[in-house]
Design goal:
Length: 434
């Protein structure tokens, strides 16, 4: 009888563990000379996270843009249901995260829609490397705020240790993807999912990508120079009637927002937007002082014709909560997302400001819950975080764009908690003075 892989790997661990530490200790990554036998501890023997086993056909290297066929199976460790081996295909994902870091993020597509790590069934799942965030908690912390919010949908995620072609590659946050669907962003058959994205560094294909510009958000004009609004869903061609419909509607909203009588309940911006979603999206990103959310990327919104424009889902917080060494977001004091193209104008409406004050009081009341959640998650990750550092060697060294460098995981977590407390304290004072 063939032995299940996670049991056979456990046997290999008995004699490979010593070699693992020699092969991985402090090296900053897996060397090309490393072999499966020297990097083969069964993660299931050292921690309380699920373990995901990925195999590509003929041990093929995963490419950034093209899918590679393979299989996946899960040892749930009694935390989530285990999953027998099924077929999948996998490719890389991300822009700077793919090119700048050795620990790669991936997008996996199962052959059939399936529950994965206890999350609602879907085909597509993201493997988030969390390389520059040494706590591996910032994105999850932001999602916790999302779960507390009025936003329509916030991605669920689960941590797991990952073995690729018999080589442990560390701890990943496995996440739902921002995409249309009944279990994800439910915009139905005629809705739109949009992303405001930066157009530089070859991020935008002006021929293939479907996008549009506004007076504020454009390649060349306004204070959003270098950005466009991409149509992520549905799949359109430039010039399609639906493309023109959503472009014209967003431009009409923006025109009303920047008009002289923008607060007028009939002729101003109010008929266009869902205020609750705009307020909560702003506050979550401002609490995190999310570098990308002011005027860069991963700024999502969605719209169903006949309804109002909604902000969200929230996404991409690895450069939030003080984890950036350029611009002002390093510091817990000061506004940042406040200066987003639309938010700054909205903050000139007293009724919008009053809603911001009301909702911040709510989020501030969750401070102890958030701090306890950080403690809970960091304790859960403890041994996996140590093994992850044995593989990638990030603790105690600078990884772009860390503002500070700590030698231990616990120090990284303490910095995150302290930064969050200082941020909430500053915002509490600043918002009371609006």
């Amino acid at each position: 009888m063939k032995m299940p892989r996670f049991i056979s790997l456990f046997k290999i661990f008995i004699f490979a563990n010593t070699l693992f530490f020699v092969g991985c200790g402090g090296g900053g990554g897996i060397s090309s000379a490393s072999t499966a036998s020297t990097l083969q501890p069964s993660f299931s023997s050292i921690n309380s996270l699920p373990v995901i086993y990925l195999e590509t056909e003929a041990n093929a290297t995963i490419q950034r843009n093209d899918y590679t066929n393979g299989t996946v199976q899960v040892n749930g460790q009694g935390i989530v249901d285990s999953m027998p081996e099924v077929t999948m295909k996998i490719r890389g994902r991300g822009h700077s995260t793919w090119g700048a870091h050795p620990k790669k993020p991936y997008q996996m597509k199962l052959s059939d829609s399936n529950v994965f790590l206890g999350m609602p069934q879907k085909k597509t799942w993201l493997f988030m490397a969390e390389y520059s965030d040494k706590t591996m908690l910032r994105n999850r912390l932001a999602m916790e705020l999302g779960y507390l919010s009025n936003l329509d949908w916030t991605a669920k995620s689960h941590y797991a240790d990952v073995v690729l072609n018999n080589v442990p590659i560390g701890t990943y946050r496995i996440s739902e993807k921002v995409q249309e669907g009944s279990n994800r962003v439910d915009i139905g058959d005629n809705g739109f999912l949009l992303e405001i994205d930066y157009a530089g560094h070859n991020r935008l294909d002006v021929v293939e990508d479907i996008y549009f510009e506004t007076n504020q958000i454009s390649l060349q004009n306004g204070n959003g120079a270098g950005n466009v609004i991409q149509v992520k869903e549905p799949d359109l061609d430039q010039g399609d009637q639906q493309h023109d419909l959503i472009r014209d509607h967003i431009i009409d909203f923006e025109t009303a927002l920047f008009s002289a009588n923008f607060t007028d309940p009939v002729n101003g911006y109010l008929p266009y937007v869902d205020i609750d979603s705009f307020v909560d999206w702003f506050l979550i990103n401002e609490i995190a002082k999310n570098q990308d959310a002011k005027a860069y990327s991963s700024i999502y919104l969605h719209y169903i014709p006949g309804q109002k424009i909604k902000m969200g889902p929230i996404w991409d917080f690895d450069l939030g909560f003080g984890n950036v060494d350029y611009d002002d977001p390093t510091y817990p004091q000061g506004w940042w997302v406040y200066y987003h193209w639309w938010i700054e104008r909205l903050m000139q409406d007293p009724s919008f400001v009053n809603k911001v004050k009301e909702r911040f009081t709510y989020f501030k009341s969750k401070e102890q819950y958030l701090l306890s959640k950080i403690d809970e998650l960091s304790q859960m990750l403890g041994r996996s975080a140590a093994k992850n550092d044995d593989i990638w060697g990030t603790l105690g060294v600078y990884v772009w764009p860390n503002p500070v460098v700590f030698n231990t995981y616990n120090e990284e977590v303490a910095y995150l908690k302290s930064w969050l407390q200082d941020r909430l304290q500053w915002m509490d004072s600043a918002i009371s003075q609006l």
